[in-house]
Amino acid sequence: MTSERSSAIDFENWSCPVPLRDTPQVVMGHGGGGAMSAELVEHLFLPAYGSSVSPGDSAVVPLLGGRIAISTDSYVVKPMFFPGGSIGDLAVNGTINDLAMSGATPLYLSIAFILQEGTPLATVGRIASAVGAAAAAAGVSVVTGDTKVVDNGSGDGVYLNTAGVGVVPEGVTIEPARAAAGDVVIISGDIGVHGIAVMSVREGLEFETSVSSDTAALHSLVAAMLGAGADVHVLRDPTRGGVAASLNEIARSAKVGISLDEPSLPIPASVADACSLLGLDALQVANEGKLLAFVPAESAPLALEAMRGHPLGAGATVIGACVEEHPGMVVARTALGGTRVVNMPIGEQLPRIC
Prior knowledge:
Organism: Paractinoplanes globisporus
Strand content: 15-25%
Protein name: Hydrogenase expression/formation protein HypE
CATH superfamily of the largest domain: PurM-like C-terminal domain
Family: Belongs to the HypE family.
Number of helices: 8
CATH topology of the largest domain: Phosphoribosyl-aminoimidazole Synthetase, Chain A, domain 2
CATH class of the largest domain: Alpha Beta
CATH architecture of the largest domain: Alpha-Beta Complex
Number of domains: 2
Number of strands: 13
Distance between the termini: 23 Å
Mean pLDDT: 89
Strand order of the largest sheet: 8-10-7-11-9-12-13
Largest sheet: 7 strands, mixed
Structural class: alpha+beta
InterPro entries: HypE, PurM-like_C_dom, PurM-like_C_sf, PurM-like_N, PurM-like_N_sf
């Protein structure tokens, strides 16, 4: 392993009983709850996560004042490692972002590993190190976890299940139903990067410029917007189903129409080229480090200034607005002056991208 945290996991000098020392791969005993499970937790997961994690099945943690936000998610991305990230940091960032989209300050995470028998322990260690590094970078603690092993052929390497807990400050109410006619729709940066980064590895695609996942924890960007005094009605990280799915869900929830300005959509050339090659709609491609924000028109300059002053929002741009017409529907105005309906995806264009 090449990460700085990997030095904490010394596979050569484990004090584990046989067969751990002689077995560099996951075996069924690692999920049995006995000595092998305990050694795996003690020598692999605890060093990777840091001292904050409880070796038990639950953790008792303090909470600041405010309302509690809770999120849960699962990650099955294939491949497990891709340009710009891995399933480990993706799981941490994705869970943090689910909390952040309600305006919450993320505090604690749990991580459960579902391992396929035969997976190299070095791979598990690499992912665990990515989990620990991403959590530390975001300022959150992994406080508890779990490990299960399924027999060879019943899984696909490593799956992760997460839960997150955060606190929503008093006076902050961010939810889809608050979208209203006249709201401006802002996106924090380029569209479709994560999905194409994963597909480039999975399908062996090559582009003139490299495409790396945009996976990132967005809570500090949200905090910057709220700290600047922006009146944020709705936040959403457009992951599975992309921008199209997120906007359709919000339009239906708030019973408003959404009109996009298609020429304003920040779709990189590499993403557009890949979508053209694969027959995909960039608006339906997943993102993992971008957010959509709905704010009243009068609050848009303040929100944009705060977003553009943050590294994760430097490319923030207005892409549309909420309207009274066609409630529950999303349309895009094309460069030729026409309009097209932006439909909710029927299924996943790109399965297993998170």
